[in-house]
Design goal:
Protein name: Aryldialkylphosphatase
Number of helices: 15
Organism: Gordonibacter faecis
Largest sheet: 8 strands, parallel
Number of strands: 12
CATH class: Alpha Beta
Mean pLDDT: 91
Radius of gyration: 19 Å
Shape: globular
Oligomer: single chain
Low-confidence stretches: none
Bound molecules: zinc ion
CATH topology: TIM Barrel
Family: Belongs to the metallo-dependent hydrolases superfamily. Phosphotriesterase family.
Pfam family, one: PTE
Modified residues (N6-carboxylysine): 170
């Protein structure tokens, strides 16, 4: 009998219910964003606090430089996140995937169990690695086989021997070394993850960054996962919204206003991935912390373009291979600070898709699809 493995134990897939496929309950992004401060020496510390007058400024991208916004320490944080999970539950939410893998862990694993118990929301935690640049000491200098063994120990005995077991695998492609090939360490993790998925039928997720990755490179990674034996149904490529527009930054969009007014909207890269039989997720809905990213170079598309891409793919019949989420990444994503928290998909996104004639497909993308993908 297949099960979905939550931090509180195994449950039957049909008990999972409404599930956001890519979220963070407690993520520590500070090792990743620490360097960004040096690009903006004119920004003063007092501009990076959570006082209300600064919210808009922080939401424009400054969140990534504000330690207070990303601080997940202390009992207050646990209370805060339980409240966010309760807000999610109030709009029908029942489960989510916690994607804060090695390199970006925000809390001890036991706290995820507490958050789940106190909120009544099931949490499925992933084992895997974020970018090479934040790889913890335990994994440094390790080969593909050694990484695979370390991940398997977590799967069999629980994370760090806690008995709290992961429910999916995750690999990350953060970019290209020499502008050409993926970072060797990230490729090792990807191959280890794909091999475990192949051997155990365990679901695997892949984090993408576009740019610098292109649709062709991503298709190559998907083909490699399948070549390594992974069942395409157990493979999910995240952050598909970043493939909706061509990989140009803000300066290019401003410099070429005519082209910008005819958005270079494309679902072709998505179709090519979906035609391999794999899954993709659109997972930045309502995320005010990362949308219009004025201060950074990231190419984050607007929520309306993201929704348009989902709609176009539904019209083509791909409803069985798409999942949704918010990628809740810091306090500014939260209801408590004027954001949508984990509520934008169950409310606005499902309502819009319903008005477009896809109510059943919307329901399927947040219930049946995650349950089938996560069951192993
Ligand atoms: Zn994420």
């Amino acid at each position: 009998m297949k099960k979905v493995r939550t931090v509180c134990g195994d449950i039957a897939p049909e008990r999972l219910g409404t599930t956001m496929i890519h979220e963070h309950v407690a993520i520590n992004l500070s090792p990743v964003t620490a360097g960004s401060r040096t690009f903006f020496p004119q920004i003063k510390d007092e501009q990076l606090t959570l006082e209300n007058r600064n919210l808009k400024f922080l939401q424009s991208g400054a969140w990534s430089m504000a330690p207070e916004v990303m601080d997940t320490s202390g009992d207050d944080y646990l209370k805060f996140i339980v409240n966010e999970l309760k807000e999610y539950k109030a709009v029908g939410g029942e489960a989510l995937c916690e994607c804060s893998v090695y390199g970006i862990l925000g809390r001890p694993y036991e706290d995820l169990v507490r958050a789940s118990e106190e909120s009544g929301v099931n949490i499925v935690y992933g084992v895997g690695m974020y970018r090479d640049s934040v790889r913890p000491a335990k994994f440094q200098g390790k080969s593909e086989d050694e990484i695979k063994t370390l991940f398997e120990a977590d799967i069999d005995n629980g994370f760090e021997e806690t008995g709290i077991k992961p429910g999916f695998l995750k690999a990350t492609f953060s970019g290209l070394a020499d502008g050409r090939l993926p970072f060797p360490g990230e490729m090792d993790v990807f191959r280890a993850v794909a091999r475990i998925s192949a051997e155990r039928g365990m679901p695997m997720m892949v984090h993408l960054e576009v740019p610098p990755l292109s649709g062709d490179q991503i298709l190559g990674f998907a083909e490699l996962a399948i070549a390594l034996g992974a069942d395409p149904k157990k493979v999910l490529f995240c952050h598909a919204q970043s493939l909706v527009t061509s990989p140009d930054g803000r300066p290019e969009m401003i410099a070429d206003v005519i082209k910008s007014h005819q958005p270079r909207f494309s679902i072709e890269p998505h179709q090519r991935l979906l035609d391999l039989g794999i899954n993709i997720s659109f997972d930045s809905f309502g995320n005010q912390a990362v949308q219009p990213f004025e201060l950074g170079g990231a190419n984050v598309v607007s929520e309306y373009l993201e929704l348009s891409a989902v709609y176009e793919l539904l019209k083509l019949g791909y409803e069985g291979q798409i999942m949704l989420g918010h990628d809740f990444c810091c306090k500014l994503s939260a209801k408590a600070y004027g954001g949508y928290g984990y509520t934008r998909v169950p409310t606005f996104v499902c309502d819009m898709l319903g008005q477009l004639g896809f109510a059943d497909a919307a329901h399927r993308m947040i219930t049946t699809n995650p349950a089938e993908f996560l069951a192993f």
